[in-house]
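ASSEMBLY PREDICTION REQUEST
Request ID: AP-0331
Submitted by: J.K., bench scientist
Number of chains: two
Total residues: 445
Priority: normal
Notes: Please return the full assembly, not individual chains.
Input sequences:
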Amino acid sequence: MTHQLPKLPYAQDALEPHIDAVTVGIHHGKHHQTYVDNLNKLMPGTEFADATLEQIVLKAQGPIFNNAAQVWNHTFYWEGMKPNGGGEPKGELLAAIEKSFSNFAGFKEQLSKMSVTQFGSGWGWLVLKKDGVLAVVQTGNAANPMTAGDVPLLTCDVWEHAYYLKYQNRRADYVTSWWNTINWDAVAARLNAAKKK
Amino acid sequence: MNTPDMNERVTRRNLLRNLGLGVAAFTARPLNRVMAAAGEPLHQPPTEFTLPPLPYADNALEPHLDARTMEIHYGKHHQAYVNSLNAALKGHANLLSKPIEQLLKNLNDVPEKLRTPVRNFGGGHYNHVFYWNCMKANGGGEPAGDLAKAIKKKFGSVIAFKQLFSATATRHFGSGWGWLVKNRKGDLAVVSTPNQDCPLSHGQIPLLTVDVWEHAYYLHYQNRRSDFVAAWWNVVNWDAVAAEFGRQ
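STATUS: Completed
Returned structure:
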């Protein structure tokens, strides 16, 4: 199957001023697109030629994994944000966060720390563990928590390309601003879907 | 544009080179560390790592590497590695007084809880010093002498070497570095290392490096890493590479 670049779920400038339009345009139109193109070049003739993206992420290694996981991770990142996002989660998601992290502020601090301290390129994540507890993790390069059996609920891209044009070396400032773009409804829907599985 | 101060720095560096101390020695010696306070004997060991001067002006590598990138790369990123290394090693005078090469060559001798900070921040410090010293204003061109002979013997031609080096650096996935190294047997090799890993930690001697962390090129080249690497060849200081090659 041929993989496609999913359409950005909002306009390029929709996340301004927190994430600027030029960054979103290059990030989606160049970086994300390149991972899709590379994956499509690598697939023919492999055991993954007819596999879904998630199957590839769960089973592949090397360049196929890198490109497939980066396609998956970026789509997940875009869908976790929206214009006029941010604020606080509600209902079951908030209850789950408070149960696992004492309170929302404590959770925010921990996920920010995970994202800021990831050394090199990578991602900060909120995940649902097998035992039903929420946790924050960091992964390097393309690595994805699904391969460890965790269910991703929210991610922050901390490859430098995600923020360098606007924030340069100030990754912490980017992560602080990123909280203003979170689509908590999307995160709540992911938690619901995971619990039904 | 060189200020008198920059000329002085460059002269001092060339002097060290001519004395046979070379890039790595220059980076390792207490010249780059906090010296003992005035009046104290000069043989006092250094008490922390410091950021050595950039061997040229921020804009010296234009148009290939823009001044703003250089300013942030050197003044913010490199400085942060030095600061983080000092913070991690605070209270460990025996480690703070050692040349960074020695720590990176013998990572397993570093206490386990300090090994990752030394690898990441110490590597970040050493790799950046090495990178700055691999470049110069009006650089580029071709290697000469014994270095050129060794490159042709190993890779067939300088063009073939450049193609391999560029491809290795461009294809490296994620943050890292492309290197020309001399391995234990004395053979040249082209390798890449992730994040701030240093070839010294793998028993290899660095001769030339290009930084392919996105911060090295993103303001000017964005996603076009291959364009950055192609432009970077125009600032390579082949004399410095030859000095490293001859010294080892």
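REVIEWER COMMENTS: DSSP finds eight helices and three strands in chain A.
SIGN-OFF: pending second reviewer
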